[in-house]
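Something for you to look into today, if you have time. Just paste the record in under my message, thanks.
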Amino acid sequence: MKFAKHSLAISALALLGACTAGPEYKKPELVMPTHWHIEAPFLVAQPGDADIKGTWWEMFQDVELNQLASSLLANNQSLQVATAHYEQAKAQASVANAGLFPQIGAQVGSSRLKISADRPQSAYNVNNQSTVQNSQQLGFSVSYEADLFGRVRKTVESARAAEQAAVADLENVRLVLMAELVADYFNVRELDAEIEVVRTAIDLQGMALKFITDRHDLGVASGLDVAQQEALLQANQTQLELLQKQRMQFEHALATMTGKPAPAFSLSEKVSSFTPPAIPVGLPSDLLQHRPDIASSERAVAVANANVGVARAAYFPSLILQANGGWNSNQFSNLISAPSILWSLGASAAQTLFDGGKTNANVRFAQSAYTATVANYRQNVLVAMQELEDGMQGGVLLARARQQAQASVNSAQRVLTLANDRYTGGLATYLDVISAQQTLLSDQRQLVQIQGQQMLNAVYLVKAMGGGWQSGQGKASPPIQIQS
């Protein structure tokens, strides 16, 4: 009967604990769009934030870029900071998980002590005596918190979710840094191409200045024509210096991201063709699931949900089970013997009766934090949708702009040829030639800038997709290709 009563009490406590372990986690619901503005397919998907993104920058097929990327992965200090934070989160998860198990300790000791004869008496009819004796001890202890109300379980749940968030944060730092590196690299290459355009224009304008100066010396051209050509040449030389300054800044940024001092880093000039890779923007179903920032914010919601359970557990008592045992003797030879055995078993429960509203405040604080993390998660999804839509439509518009800019360059080249012919034939002033030169240079620089924007748009579109994708997933229509 006594055993049955104890069993019933234990069962009741366990049932109560199961009911008060805290709120179960449910992923926040989202209202997702059914299509893109450019009619790319989009379906709801299962989470895939743990997929390996791979070396997505290799799609640009640039050996020098790949080398810089390898240096970033090996030497970037911000990436090492994020890695250390992940290791900290993993260690914290291990610390929290240890609370699920008993804490076991051992003790061994040896001492010689003298007891005072003048110590307070333990009994009136017994006189105290001074004694000198040895004490040999060998023991163990076991302590365990019976997690009836879910505090430990929710603490472990929170720590595990925080570890998963740290993994996503590390992946996001890697993605952001790599996207910045690739973008800065293509900024450098766009400036190289633009510098080459301006240098070519300066060479041609220098030849034109010599030509018009010779005509002036022969009395055919006016001093105004010479001054106009000199002003145009000097203005473009100024533009060249400013472009080189911009290039220098991007080059120094690349040095820092690859873990190298700026004075010890240089990137040789190279004029490359700007052809963005085809990006399958119409991914079948798991487009947003690859983004590590969204994965991190969703795990933050799980952390906040578990913390609500931890805060609520303070309403209930904590129960500690303890067991101690060992041997104690005044002689080492008799230590491990039956008469020297000592032990104790016990349990203690603690319950806060009044704390001035502290527990209530902690619960409200945890619930407010949960509400904030849900809103942050939904906001991150909205931002991701914005970035994806910007990247997809931007790619289409830039491709059209590139075609128009190329046509404009071709037309400006014909205008310059006609202006030169008309000026040489005496049918027009040299101001027409100057205007045609300026228009051609402006159109050529605009074309190069648009080509550079196409490369940057491709980088940011890949970043918006989380740094890569898994081909062959889902059953959607063939992806839309954005290219020049």
